[in-house]
């Protein structure tokens, strides 16, 4: 062990401080504001433009500088204000205007933190605690969630699509495929699939806020004519039918096994005979203790969803078979949420 028990406990117990500093800056959009003003701004000027407390802004900016996410330059003239800049290495990720920005995920993490702060009460009561929306409002919190997922998916979708092709899940070389992206949000995975399957078409089925994001993604692109959209609630509405592949990405952890089985039954009727379903999520060891990231994500579901949880392969297999699927296998093993279980409609 490279560190003492005290040092390990201190590191883990204080980790929230760095996270809270980053997520607060994301909610306030401090990094983008600095970049928009020539990447050179004093704490007072930032506070005035953003409409926040000047002392609070200065303390947060100094903390972010100490963490390495900002640089602070001494005043050019005596008595003048110091200015803050965003280092080049962080500009793409911390500029909320950039398509690869990590800011939406930081905002989603800020919302998650409010639930985690009540973890002891949640464990005591067995249910999530009531919490209020962020300073951005509930509607913007929904957008942050969708685009936060996108900020992860844009980095993982391509490699995962290639892994699915190697595993035979995306083996549609013989004929054009119809793909159903269930709860597909902004369509990051749909895009990756269509890019490696040049004759395939896809339909994204999600709530209106997700469909709006997906329409924006594909509008005016070469893929626009191959993507279709349908707004709905896959927990309540029947899915459209006639598909060769149904993609269920990062959904099952939001609910319990009865809802999973209901979702799988809904997906079953959406597929052609011989069609496949692919379920992406954390897939836990039989005893539920690894991967470690999955155990922590299980806590995240505990504090946010009434029946949210992570699943073992055996549980996913049982639920898919209960719904009527066969040939269930772990198509893509992973220690992350990029594990994929596949199955076939008889």
TrEMBL record:
Protein name per Swiss-Prot or TrEMBL: Methyltransferase domain-containing protein
Active site: 253
Family matches, as Pfam families: Dimerisation, Methyltransf_2
InterPro entries: COMT-like (IPR016461), COMT_C (IPR001077), COMT_dimerisation (IPR012967), SAM-dependent_MTases_sf (IPR029063), WH-like_DNA-bd_sf (IPR036388), WH_DNA-bd_sf (IPR036390)
Keywords, ordered alphabetically: Methyltransferase, S-adenosyl-L-methionine, Transferase
GO biological process entries: methylation
O-methyltransferase dimerisation domain residues: 14-85
Domain (O-methyltransferase C-terminal): residue spans on this chain: 175-325
A Gene Ontology molecular function term of the record: O-methyltransferase activity
């Amino acid at each position: 062990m490279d560190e003492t028990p005290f040092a390990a406990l201190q590191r883990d117990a204080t980790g929230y401080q760095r996270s809270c500093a980053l997520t607060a800056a994301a909610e306030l959009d401090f990094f983008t504001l600095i970049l928009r003003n020539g990447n050179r701004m004093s704490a007072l000027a930032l506070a005035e433009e953003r409409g926040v407390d000047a002392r609070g802004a200065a303390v947060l900016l100094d903390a972010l500088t100490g963490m390495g996410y900002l640089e602070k330059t001494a005043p050019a003239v005596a008595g003048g204000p110091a200015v803050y800049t965003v280092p080049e290495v962080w500009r793409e990720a911390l500029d909320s205007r950039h398509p690869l920005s990590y800011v939406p995920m930081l905002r989603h993490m800020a919302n998650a933190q409010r639930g985690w702060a009540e973890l002891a009460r949640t464990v005591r009561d067995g249910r999530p605690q009531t919490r209020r929306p962020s300073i951005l409002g509930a509607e913007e919190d929904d957008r942050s969630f969708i685009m936060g997922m996108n900020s992860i998916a844009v980095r993982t979708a391509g490699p995962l699509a290639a892994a699915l092709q190697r595993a035979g899940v995306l083996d549609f070389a013989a004929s054009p495929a119809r793909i159903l992206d269930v709860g597909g949000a902004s369509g990051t995975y749909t895009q990756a699939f269509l890019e490696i399957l040049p004759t395939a078409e896809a339909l994204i089925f999600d709530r209106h806020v997700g469909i709006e994001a997906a329409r924006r993604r594909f509008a005016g692109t070469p893929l626009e004519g191959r993507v279709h959209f349908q707004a709905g609630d896959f927990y309540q509405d029947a899915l459209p039918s006639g598909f060769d592949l149904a993609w269920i990405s990062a959904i099952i952890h939001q609910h319990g096994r009865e809802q999973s089985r209901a979702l799988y039954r809904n997906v079953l009727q959406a597929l052609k005979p011989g069609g496949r379903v692919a379920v992406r999520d954390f897939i836990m060891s039989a005893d539920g203790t690894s991967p470690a990231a999955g155990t922590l994500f299980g806590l995240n579901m505990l504090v946010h969803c009434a029946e949210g949880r992570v699943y073992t392969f055996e549980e996913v297999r049982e639920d898919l078979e209960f719904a009527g699927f066969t040939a269930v296998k772990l198509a893509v093993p992973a220690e992350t949420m990029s594990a994929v279980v596949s199955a076939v409609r008889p």
